[in-house]
Specification:
Order of helices and strands of chain B: EEEHEEHH
Largest sheet of chain B: 5 strands, antiparallel
CATH superfamily of the largest domain in chain A: Sulfite Reductase Hemoprotein, domain 1
Number of strands of chain A: 20
Distance between the termini of chain B: 29 Å
Number of strands of chain B: 5
Mean pLDDT of chain B: 96
Number of domains of chain A: 4
Strand content of chain A: 15-25%
Strand order of the largest sheet of chain B: 3-2-1-4-5
Shape of chain B: globular
Number of helices of chain A: 18
Low-confidence stretches of chain A: none
CATH topology of the largest domain in chain A: Sulfite Reductase Hemoprotein, domain 1
Structural class of chain A: alpha+beta
Radius of gyration of chain B: 13 Å
Radius of gyration of chain A: 23 Å
Oligomer: heterodimer
């Protein structure tokens, strides 16, 4: 894992001191809210419905046990005993007092964490595949490159006031688990025919009120050109992106309006002037950062196969969890474990302080001291010996985090919605809870198979509804909540934006509507192996429209 | 009918203007029934913002239901009570505790 060097420590501590002074001046009335607001946003502090909100950055979703314990400490000491993991692999605390934030940030800094660039029109925290470094299908771990970009983009003087926020994501596998096509820049680390590492570069994806998938503008960028090429992209955007209209300011609009080919031409022209500059990454620098991410030394644990076989026979619930929440590791004696934060009837992504402490203990004992946050709002233990899986499972059962529902209909992505968020138009969490409760039976969920259901409480789409196989968007209509349904979205390597299926549904109708959609799918799928998304792509919206709305047409 | 609301600078707590001061609950909020009263509350809000006591100052529509203030928008009802998914948090938790 990356460890702060002397520069990082000094930088973060200086920023804590600076923000402490700004808060003190604000509380003393020496600066106005208009002056203070951009400063607090740069430090991850928002004002939500009930209180301030502090968003803490988790670079590429990677946490040490010590850092996870620090998040538990923040939740316990400055908040209400819980935190909320977001679709950007960050964590939010929903109740801190402004006057406590300097102390919270100082505590975070002691564990090499901060809240910088989790808001504002800058390069935001950089995300990555949550199985990076563990996945069996990976070309290489993309996190060293994410770390290089983190260092380069921290208070980058040229890119601190972009037209709009700017988000970058990495995957190191063909199978995209980081939703890179929904990002301003998506980077796919891969090897060329000669075995050299480089990136496919995707630009101009985004969700929000104008969902657009990224376009690939380069199939292979040799790794040493990462900084110069990203600089060229963001420079073109910084010069030509719109600043007159917030809703047209993201790079996706620029790429869309310019055309991907012409945009790529402009980037390449800019890059020509930069590629051999000081931005060219020396191999020694890449190696130095790579060294921080050296995989843990994984001792042979061949007894795992037999241990898992016996435990599976002994416990059906363990077998279910194994089938659903455990992923193949590049080392045959190991596995990656996903800890579902989607207990039936609870808030997606929420975790208590004591659960965070307990997961930190488990990670320390059985997972080489490392945990990850996924953009699907779950936690991951990337390296667990198969021989230890039953012990880890038992420990997770003890803290109520052993729900076996990864990638099933109750593994719902949901934003905080109108229960917390000042931008929201409708609630997301209760809808997620009710759907999960309706489909609580694991047998039924597994019969339905992989189904990504995503809910946003407003058009900003933090809940990724556009790319859910089933997406739900909450809106406000005549003072009441209304839920629009989209079908056919996907965030993986075959990404697609969902289609709005028809008129929306009230809070009392939406769960029934989802059930109708699911039952329709079960009736029309070619066989049990055809996933919801595949059936939708084969048959289109017609059967679902018919099931949802045909009765109305006849009645009318 | 409208009432005046804001969030307190120091901790973000939701406040409503009531009985000549700012209250942490909506129940006794001063109700403006005409334009003149609304203008007076708006001025109070602007002054409190200028004095760095509150932020996000807003006038919100309400109705009276059996004599009890009920904001028209769900958003404001949630601000007045707390998250609908966590009865142990927000104002509603305090009234349970009381």
């Amino acid at each position: 894992m990356y460890r702060y060097d002397e520069f990082d420590h000094e930088f973060v501590q200086a920023r804590v001191a600076q923000f402490r002074d700004q808060i003190e001046r604000r509380l003393a009335g020496d600066i106005t809210e208009d002056q203070f607001r951009p400063l607090r946003l740069m430090n991850g502090v928002y004002l939500q419905l009930h209180a301030y909100m502090l968003r803490v950055a988790i670079p590429y979703g990677t946490l040490s046990s010590r850092q996870l314990r620090m998040l538990a400490h923040i939740a316990r000491t400055y908040d209400r005993g819980y935190g909320h993991f977001t679709t950007r692999q960050n964590i939010q605390f929903h109740w801190p007092a402004l006057s406590d934030i300097p102390a919270a940030l100082a505590d975070l800094a002691s564990a090499e964490m901060h809240a910088l660039q989790t808001s504002g029109n800058c390069i935001r925290n950089i995300s990555a595949d949550h199985f990076a470094g563990a996945a069996a299908d990976e070309a290489a771990d993309p996190r060293p490159y994410a770390e290089i970009l983190r260092q380069w983009s921290s208070v980058h003087p040229e890119f601190t006031y972009l037209p709009r926020k700017f988000k970058i994501a990495f995957t190191g596998s063909e199978r995209d688990r980081a939703a890179i096509q929904t990002y301003d820049i998506g980077l796919h680390l891969k090897k060329d025919a000669a075995g050299e590492l480089g990136f496919a570069v995707w630009v101009g994806g985004g969700q929000g009120r104008t969902p657009i998938l990224a376009k690939k503008i380069r199939d292979f960028l040799p790794q040493q050109h990462l900084l110069s090429y990203i600089t060229a992209i963001i420079r073109v955007y910084n010069l030509s992106g719109r600043r007159d209209n917030k809703w047209k300011a993201r790079i996706k609009i620029l790429v869309h309006e310019t055309g991907a080919e012409e945009f790529a031409r402009q980037v390449e022209a800019e890059w020509e002037a930069l590629k051999d500059s000081e931005l060219k990454l020396p191999q020694a620098d890449i190696d130095a950062i790579n060294a921080y991410f050296a995989p843990p030394s994984l001792p042979e644990r061949p007894e795992g196969d037999e241990a898992v076989r016996l435990a599976r026979l002994d416990s059906k619930s363990f077998a279910d969890w194994l089938n659903q929440n455990v992923t193949t590791h590049r080392h045959p004696d190991y596995a990656a474990v996903t800890i579902s934060l989607k207990n039936i009837g609870e808030t997606p992504g929420d975790i208590s302080d004591s659960q965070m402490d307990a997961v930190a203990d488990i990670a320390e004992k059985y997972a080489f001291d490392e945990a990850r946050v996924s953009h699907e709002q779950n936690l991951v233990l990337p390296h667990v010996a198969r021989a230890d899986l039953k012990t880890v499972y038992d420990a997770l059962v003890e803290i109520g985090l052993a729900t076996a529902n990864i990638d099933l209909i109750s593994d719902i992505i949901a934003c905080p919605g109108l229960d917390y968020c000042t931008l929201a138009n409708a609630r997301s969490i209760p809808v997620a809870q009710q759907i999960a409760t309706r489909f609580a039976s694991l047998e039924r969920q597994r019969d339905i198979g992989e189904l990504k259901l995503n809910i946003s409480g407003c058009i900003n789409a933090c809940g990724h509804h556009h790319v859910g196989h089933i997406g739900i968007l909450g809106v406000e209509k005549k003072g009441a909540e209304l839920y629009q349904v989209t079908l056919g979205g996907s965030a993986d390597e075959n990404a697609s934006i969902g289609d709005i299926i028809g008129r929306g549904f009230g809070p009392d109708e939406i769960v029934d509507a989802i059930e109708t959609i699911v039952e329709t799918y079960l009736a029309i799928r070619s066989d049990a192996g055809e996933r919801f998304i595949d059936a939708y792509r084969r048959l289109g919206p017609a059967p679902f429209k018919e099931a949802l709305y045909a009765g109305e047409a006849k009645a009318a | 009918m409208k009432i005046l609301t804001a969030n307190r600078l120091t901790d973000g707590e939701c406040l409503w203007y009531a009985r000549g001061g700012w209250a942490e609950t909506i129940d006794d909020a001063e109700i403006a029934a005409d334009k003149e009263a609304e203008a007076r509350l708006e001025d109070i809000g602007k002054a409190a913002f200028a004095a760095n006591f509150v932020l996000d100052v807003a006038m919100v529509d309400i109705e009276l239901v059996d004599g009890v203030i009920r904001p028209t928008r769900l958003r404001e009802r949630i601000r007045a009570a707390g998250p609908t998914v966590r009865n142990d948090l927000g104002k509603q938790a305090r009234s349970l505790a009381a």
